[in-house]
Amino acid sequence: MNLKTITIALAAALLCGFSYGQSDTQGVKEDFKPSPLNQPGQEYPQVNSQGYARFRIKAPQADSIRVSLGLGGQGGTRLSKGADGFFTGTTSGPMDEGFHYYHLTIDGGVFNDPGALNFYGSTRWESGIEIPAKDQDFYALKEVPHGNVQQILFPSKSTNTSRRAFVYTPPGYRKSSKRYPVLYLQHGWGEDETAWSNQGRANLIIDNLIAENKIKPFIIVMTYGMTNETRWGRMRDFKIDGFQTVLTEELIPYVDANFQTVANRNNRAMAGLSMGGMETHTITLNKPDLFGYYALLSGGTFNPGELKDKTKPRLIFLSCGSKERPEGVRNAVNSLKEAGYNAVSYVSEGTAHEFLTWRRSLRELAPLLFN
């Protein structure tokens, strides 16, 4: 899959899974509860058991408010103004389960919802809403041993600055001299190094899998994947060279020098969602001796031809949501298997280009790593 195809596929996928317009309330259950991602003490936004979302904004001087849901804020749910100065409205249909970005357009200006927590996406801090998923237990905060997510600043001569990364270390890290494999995990376009721990719940997913003895503990490194800022719709302008240098020549050596890692390709993996999958695809092909495990989460595919005559990966993992292009993922994995590669596909049922797809993908990927 080339860059143009990936860009078109991502743009289409971003429009999936959201319902727009003012709701016809017939058939909507009135069992709404505050979203799990609300600011402390805030009653709205709310979600019900069917997956509808309801918003209520106080803006007595405003004439119109629209709620735009999803990465990039496509479409909109128009809110109705009451005599008390509150605008209220419900999505026209149920939303996909899991996390979604959104923002408000008030009389033409873009604002965040004061009732919701903010998350970095669409190259800005956006409001977030969580539609509880039936399988949310795997990323829930539980009474199990927890690892640590810490911020690091590492020197980058190529960009003439210090750059930031977040590093997850598993429960029990530093209590012994044990050394750990490392997964380098990349965010999507418009997001940053906070995405996988905040929106993706990566640390909780791994904590829970370790507690269930389903995976071998490993370190996760999450860093900002852009060295040349690129606007949505201009992905053709993105150049991998700068970030590849940061990752492979600066960050990896820093992590290996400062953390208890097993510093070889058989104990090093790279994965990414969406644009981060595109980065993973390119860098693993360019640097096959650095990484033993490749994973693209809604981020394109590999084919046997581009892997030929390169150091063979121990695993290739490809995933997407069932509302994306699952046949492309499945067909690619079948071709890789026929060519003798250890390849695995995963399709998240009922989801599109969104974080429940990627949370589930990480859950499926983790047990396959470093075995």
Automatic annotation (TrEMBL):
Pfam families: Esterase (PF00756)
Entries under InterPro entries matching the protein: AB_hydrolase_fold, Esterase-like, Ig-like_fold, Ig_E-set, Mycobacterial_A85_antigen
Stretch forming the signal peptide: 1-21
Keywords annotated in UniProt: Hydrolase, Signal
SUPFAM superfamilies: alpha/beta-Hydrolases, E set domains
Gene Ontology MF terms: hydrolase activity
Protein name (database record): Alpha/beta hydrolase-fold protein
Organism from which the protein derives: Paradesertivirga mongoliensis
Organism placement in taxonomy: Bacteria, Pseudomonadati, Bacteroidota, Sphingobacteriia, Sphingobacteriales
